[in-house]
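re the bet — no i am not wrong, look at it urself. input seq straight from the record:
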Amino acid sequence: MQHAVNSIIKGCIEAAERTPQKPAIYYSGHTISYKDLHEQVLRTAQSLHEHSVKRGDRVLFYGEKSPHFVRTYLACHLVGAIAVPVDVQMPMDELSKVYHRVQPALALFPATKTWPFPFQEWGEGFMSDSRYPIERFPTPDEVADLLFTTGTTGQKKGVLLTHENIWAGATNSNIFIGNTSEDSEIIPLPLHHAFGLRRLRTNLMLGASVHLINGFMFPKQIFEAIELGATGLCMVPSGLEVIKKLTKNTYDAQLSKLSYIEFGSMPMDAATKAELMDKLPHTKLCMHYGLTEVAANIFIEFHEHHNHLQTLGRPSPNVEIGIMNESGKLLSDGELGEIVVKGSVQTPGYWQDDELSQSSIKNGWFRTGDLALITPEGFVELKGRNDDVINVGGKKVFPQEIEDTINQHPDIKDSVCIAVTARLLGEQIKAYVEMEPSKRFDKEGIIEYLRAFLEPYKIPAQFEVIASIPKTSWDVLGNEGP
């Protein structure tokens, strides 16, 4: 039996041995102790074994937020199988494609639907009467998870994560936020996706408690969890906006009782950051930048780094961050290039995609596709994505910089910039703008305003007023999403 704790499942089982009566999961008015969770994981693992699931096999399962998910996920790790949770809202044709790409040894889904492949019904019935005999825990280099995430082309990428990867991601997050076994975290986020799943791992490996809440539409459930003693919360900025609206902006009475909140998966505007700092002066307000492939690798804490809130923050513990040019050379502070990441969080590659796996690594560094520079103080300042760059007369322009500037105009509520074909320059910039209520569009006035902040070639050649800017999942610029 291994002695070093180097996997989530080993940390969780050791927590069950230390504090068997402690709550592991709060869910829908019920509490599951670490002793009960341990028992359920062993019985689910035995059921996997009885269905001939072997080490290295894939297990495809329904990604709902429930105790079924938690014990299935941990049981996969215990038997050495690869956990493949899928979005409950994934269309049937996409799900079928994933099934055939993965070729799982077993699929576990509720019998409430007809699925386009053979499956076993999961739930209480998928627990053997016997307990799985633990002969060994997985080694760090064994693959633990296969998570599907949408790439920039729309094609789903199958990200492979080893036990070392997920352990390192959870450990690094714990170090930054300061989590301990005494914490009790509210998780309203999906568990099939990197952010919510990382927070689940982060807590269970410590022996902390989790409150599984179904989204942000019922703030009362979140507030009830706080009354039960929750100390932390993970959320996306759009979830905060829902809570603000549903509580008529009185959310601070409850959220101020939390020790920490971790935000991620989409941008947060400066005004919201300032509001949170004002309303929650004693709560640690963290925000991460990350990708499924390399976990949360940059963090910022609003109060501590209040003079650098326009940046992503600094590298998370135990992770190296560099800025690289197109030829693979690491650049100095202040030079613009691609964010690259190195560390134990780094994926070994993509499922059945050697070309993508190889092109994602440059000189041992994982390429994020995001463009940034590092300030003299060591903060990473995001500028855009490689594939978002607009080439105006041979000069690179980053839409986010222009949008941020346009949005500072008092008459403009929001904007988005795209490239349009130009006869002479190759590409021009077109800005779609959403005006503030009752404000009139004044093209010349806006251009005059932009001249004070932008070089001439960065000023949009075309403008179009639209009723509202479409909102899509930012996914940290295509990265660790909700």
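see?? Residues 472-482 have pLDDT under 50 and may be disordered. told u. also The radius of gyration is 23 Å. so pay up
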